[in-house]
Amino acid sequence: MLAAAASPLLFGVPRLLRAQDGPLKIALLTSLSGPFASLGESMRAGLELMLQQCNNEMGGRKVQLLVEDDHGKPDEAIRKVRKLIERDKIDVLGGVISANIALAIRDIVHDAQLPTFISNAAANGLAREAASPYVFRPTKTSWMLGHTGALWTFEHIEKSGGITLGSDYTAGREYIEDFANTYQEQGGTLGERIWTPLGTPDFAPILMNLAASNPKFVYTFLAGADAVRFHQQMQDYQLHGKIQIVGPGALFDQEDVITAVGEAALGGVSTFHQSPGAPAAQDFVAAYQASRGRLPGEASTSGYVTGQVIKAGLDAVKGDLSNKAAFKQALLDKPIDTAFGPMAFDPRNNQSILDIYVNRVEKDAQGRPFNTVVHTYQRIQDPGPRS
């Protein structure tokens, strides 16, 4: 059964009493194969860097990290989560890239009363009708990015003449709908809505459509390998620079998209809770570059931030998870300094309240295509459970 609000009383019921002097078992569920494989590898690298920096210790206890590949498939994710809970007896779960997977495992972690931190998946429902007292969201919702993207597009790009393009699954549907709703509420008018399957190998029919219709802008949600192929094929069809592309940050992810497409991303505009140019990210950016030799994107930053948030809670309770209400309250009591920026949690649903950056891909001082922050929407809060 779905819980509409995150009751602190429910969170206080211990799932399992165990010795508090042994290692903390923290599991990362992520996609190490399938369309989001590169994102999954980056997420793992971000979390591992954070654990390295804290000497694999949180709340005075050593941390044992378990990593599972969900293959980007909800059924596989369900199987892996059940194994982590029943056989491995984990203390905390983090990760999850896809909205479909986040929604698929929600009832399992809720029923197990397992402290869970959704690192990346943006599904609005997890902050609304599917909110759980056991699930924290140290990440954005689809609405937070679609809404701010519409505000910026209407005010600074065009008030009409645009179309939308989205991956036809939960996240894509939400981003496009949230953008369209806010854009039209501002008085904007939109044309065609185009949907494409997740994992589309060839965007030629869509690109020929764009060449013929010549829209003023295309608000686009594509992620991972799909985003890479889209930018590369836009360049192949000589459309890059002729049509303004706007989208959530995954479309221009610094690490997992821009690294692959280079100058084909220049001029792109996105709204995102993450930017390598954000002041709060600079220490992490330097450490990540030293570790992996490249700039971080969302997935690596989200892995790192998830570690920061879990550590803040565990440090506050000195590693004692037998009182989950105290662990939860520690996360709600005050904002946490993270590589995304200051992060407070909404007590209604455990959804983070975040600054959202408007990034424009420009060349930096070293000549690299770089997500440059041109504006910040401060403390954006999802509408929450009654939406």
From TrEMBL:
Record keywords: Signal
One Pfam family of this chain: Peripla_BP_6
SUPFAM superfamilies per record: Periplasmic binding protein-like I
Domain Leucine-binding protein: 23-364
Family matches, as InterPro entries: BCAA_transport, Leu-bd, Peripla_BP_I
Keyword ATP-binding: no
Record-stated family: Belongs to the leucine-binding protein family.
Protein name: ABC transporter substrate-binding protein
Species: Alcaligenes faecalis
